[in-house]
Each structure stands twice: as structure tokens, then as C-alpha cells.
Amino acid sequence: MDFLQTLVTIFMQYGYFSVFGILILCGFGLPVPEDISLTAGGVISGLGYANVHIMFFVGMAGVLIGDSFVFWLGSHYGERALTLPVLRTVLHPERFDKVREQFKKYGRWVVFVGRFMPGLRMPIFFTAGTSKQISFFLFLLTDGFAALISVPIWVYLGYYFAHNFDELMSWVRGGQTIILILVGILVGVLFFFWWRRKHQEGKGDK
């Protein structure tokens, strides 16, 4: 809670630009929880220091620009970028190898899932860039679709519980679980429609 209050204090003073900047730095590997930053942006909106709908777009822009930079870094410099101090501290060779193996198996779906995995986002997005298996446009589309699920949850959670930090923190602790449940439902629905389409096509061929 202390860290959330610290972010709220900073964001109240500097508004949208501070939220935007912190989120971009999160993408670069800054050890600040992205979900807490988004929630703090929602809190200052609930307290009247910002418009919550604008904050949602600021949040989307911040996370996507940060993620895109990491992807570009991997795409442009490849594994040479692993020698950079900003990457060396968070992306060890062993972790990079593990993420690369997962990316070979599952492709862009790893990017989608990576958005909901704090601590693994940067390694996954960097590896996506080095892999050359996914274009920047497809990366941005996949990451953006995933962000449309997670970003509004954190921003509007902060907004609705801005005046009750104890209640807010209880929701924040369970927020990641809520997001994973929503993702699971979405994947289930998409799989159902895919299966039904395949089933109907199979009938049509008979």
C-alpha cells in the first residue's frame, strides 16, 4: 500500500505525463509493477486529478510504446542487446533460452499470454523481436488486444476504489486472478467458435 500511495502522490503532482513516463520505463525494465502504476493512475482520476477515460488511453499508449521499444530492441540488435545493462539485469541467458523455446512452440500466443505475466513481459517481448517469427504489426496487434483486457481493469479499479485504499488493495491482490479468469473464458469462447466452425466445415465436406 505504501508504494501505491507514493505513486499516487507523484501522479497527483505531475498528472498524465508522469503515468505515461512510468509505464514506458516499466516496459524498459524499471522494477515498478505495471499494474500498480495503472491502478495509481485510476486512483488520481477517482480523486478528481484526471479524467479516467483519458487515463485509460494514456495507460494504453504507455504500455504499448514501452512494449514496442523492447520488441524493436530485440528485432534491431538481436542477442547483442543482451549485453546492455538494462537487459543484463533482468534477462539472464538461461531465461532468454527458456523463453525462446516457448516462442518456437507457441509463436505469437506467447506474446498474448506474456502481457498477463509480470516479470516475464520484457523477456517475452524482447525474444519476440529476436525470433523474426512475428512482424511488428502483428506483435502490436496481439499485445494491444491483450492490453485491452488488462489495462482498463487496473485503471477503473483504481478509479472506483479511490476513496477506500483497504478495499482497493484487496481487489488489487486478486486482480491478476480476475484477469487470468477473463482470459481463460475468452480463450474458451474462441476455441468453441473455432471448433464449431471446423465441425460445420467437416459436415459440409461429406
UniProtKB/TrEMBL annotation:
It is a multi-pass membrane protein. Residues 32-159 form the VTT domain. InterPro entries: DedA-like, VTT_dom. Its main location: membrane. It is found in: Cell membrane. The chain crosses the membrane at residues 7-30, 50-73, 136-157, 177-195. Keywords: Cell membrane, Membrane, Transmembrane, Transmembrane helix. Belongs to the DedA family. This is DedA family protein. It comes from Leptospira levettii. The lineage of its organism: Bacteria, Pseudomonadati, Spirochaetota, Spirochaetia, Leptospirales.
